[in-house]
Amino acid sequence: MKKFNRDKAKEIIAEMMLNESNCNLEELKDDFPYYDYIEEINSLLEEGKILGLSKQNHIRIQKNEWLDIEFSLAFKPVYQLYFIDSFLHVTNQYLEKRLLELKIESSVIGIKEPTGKCPCCEYYSIDYGEDGDYDVCPVCFWENGGNGPNHMTLEEAQHNFNTFGAKSKTALEFTDKEGKLKYKKASKTSP
């Protein structure tokens, strides 16, 4: 059985996701949060890791004209970063499961990134501490910032999560369907 550290496991899974025949670049373009990746894209460009980028796209990136970028296979390294980031806070067991789906029997080792507990569903799925402010939990879709951004009380959201699996019925479609498998749930302690 192979052993991988968390970062290597994420990298392998992300690479396989990109190589899957059903990985649609147009779909990725629609979901891609390019403003969050400006620094990474510029670093990859400087290091020569984004090859085959058109001169027009290079100029658009330098001018921060993100909405005009024509996405292509040249952006694969950026999409790989995007997929790697999607595994932030997941458990080592989930990474092992994904590797096994790729026919790689392995053990994933290493300490998980500091992770905050969602106040609604109590899964460890958001950034730790103040960095987690205004993070949206992928498990229940609660926005970590209090009642205001959620338009309901925490108690209402917890009741809804226990009833149908999200902070509200409308939020259910935005939750990560594998969220409960990916993230660790806070254990109940006895009084």
Describe the protein's architecture and organization.
It is a single chain. This protein has 191 residues and is mainly α. Helix content is 40%, strand content 8%. It has nine helices and four strands, in the order βααααααβββααα. It has helices at residues 6-19, 25-31, 38-46, 55-62, 76-85, 92-101, 147-150, 154-164, 179-182, and strands spanning 2-5, 106-109, 115-117, 124-127. A two-stranded parallel ribbon has the order 1-2. It has a two-stranded antiparallel sheet with strand order 3-4. β3 and β4 form a beta hairpin. The protein is globular and about 55 Å long. The termini are far apart. The mean pLDDT is 85.
Reconstruct the topology from this structure.
Layout: E1 2-5, H1 6-19, H2 25-31, H3 38-46, H4 55-62, H5 76-85, H6 92-101, E2 106-109, E3 115-117, E4 124-127, H7 147-150, H8 154-164, H9 179-182
Parallel strand pairs: 1-2
Antiparallel strand pairs: 3-4
Compact description:
The chain has 191 residues and is mainly alpha-helical. It has nine helices and four strands.
